[in-house]
């Protein structure tokens, strides 16, 4: 059966009119009778009280619409940068994206972040330029900006589709389309559909969602120029979100990517699907079965996680957007800290980037958060769900650690009647690549099952660095030797020796502290550009030569998050409201003031008893601890370096 269903996400910078466009689509297609407004707090999709009071989308929402010959699942995603992780999770299930641009503001900093994500996930994208009813918004100027700042294959699809200009603009995007145009003086619709699907063309439509102008033309274009994917017969599904309904029932949101899913099916950990729900706003219908290509919400699964693949589907790669700030969650006096920690871990399922951590020594709970707006939302959520009033401290930067050069880590765990030994080669990897794991050990030396177990232990936890206790990243860790005992080795023994090998390697190597870096765009009146450049230098940032744009000057470059996070208010103050600062996370780079940060954090790797750097050996029937710098003298297996030399 030919698929006629598409999953389409609506993305935008905050205040571009994304939710208003979703409302207009629902009204035009007859799915709602009354047109709601964000400023009136009565839109169909922003149904959470905080969303209505603040006028922003916090959680991605689903709506089902039919138009022309296709059925669409519309996913409305958050526009505010603090909730961009929620938006990114949604990208992995999209067939197409609608990128809403404000005609008044043009291509802002966060739009460029969205564009990079759409490139990374290879999602065909269609533009809707909104607010074209406002004075001074010029279509040609905006189209020029889209071509210049995003991609020169942005094409105006609002001109007559049979006009010479329409086909000429499309033909310029691809050599095959140009040949077809020169031969036939037109281009087949199927070829245009294919080019859009392959991201060779980015259709642009213009209008006003609030005044319902251009929405009908946009919908016709969306239906006419999109193409439904074909899916395999074998079952597969991608989990993109975990949430809970008003009754507290755990909900798994997923897209079926192969075959079909029926109620009562046994899935992960032999858990049974109780219900299949199709949501539209906060209402849903239940169905007994759902086909590939559709998005649904299921109950009955208690151990799923966002980004997980079910059936034939693979797990997603780690998200690009991540929090760079960590906050202590301050509880009321006499609170059950551990009890609240367990409750907050439920929130972490729904917002995986939170990274809820309990510091047992200090009896504190910490959370990683994208920004201050998100802390306000979390306070409200915790009050609403757990009836507890919490506060957040001022927040600190999330640092990371890596190594400067290759090093071998050794770990041994041998208390009485236990035995496991592990050697790991730890090598620096490309910035932003995260951690990868491999094995280079003969099965004659170490059974395959033990090797797999060691790789599992490497991947299962966040390993702490030795400078500040921050998470390690940007390394390739290869198992290069290991040993088990026929009688005394248990699975947990390799967990201990693996963790210790990582820490011992970090102590032996040359650790590097990494800090988050913003990529920024600063627009100020030209007479203030000297002040701006001086500020960036003070913040240990970099900049390119200023660009002049009328009476404004534009500065682009990078700067440490620690210095730039409060700079927005400074810009507003000294420019008297005329200046604008846009920034997005570029990634992590070596810290500009490592010694100062290490002193401030005051982490002592040798006092961290939960993450030991040494190993446990056995002598005369009793286990004894060996510090990291003496472990090599006691190891039973040959080092990788020595073995390589002997070969």
Secondary structure layout:
Layout: E1 5-12, H1 18-28, H2 49-54, E2 61-67, E3 70-76, H3 84-91, E4 96-102, H4 109-120, E5 125-130, H5 139-149, E6 154-156, H6 164-171, H7 175-184, H8 189-197, E7 202-206, H9 215-224, E8 236-244, E9 250-258, E10 260-262, E11 275-280, E12 283-286, E13 289-291, E14 295-299, E15 309-311, E16 325-330, H10 337-350, E17 357-359, E18 364-369, H11 372-386, E19 391-392, E20 396-397, E21 400-403, E22 407-413, E23 420-428, E24 435-439, H12 448-459, E25 471-472, E26 475-484, H13 491-508, E27 511-525, H14 529-538, E28 542-543, E29 547-549, E30 552-560, H15 561-564, H16 567-574, E31 580-590, H17 594-601, E32 615-619, E33 622-626, H18 640-646
Parallel strand pairs: 1-3, 1-4, 4-5, 5-7, 6-7, 21-25, 24-26
Antiparallel strand pairs: 2-3, 8-9, 8-15, 9-14, 10-13, 11-12, 11-14, 16-18, 16-19, 16-20, 17-18, 21-27, 22-23, 23-26, 27-30, 27-31, 28-30, 29-30, 32-33
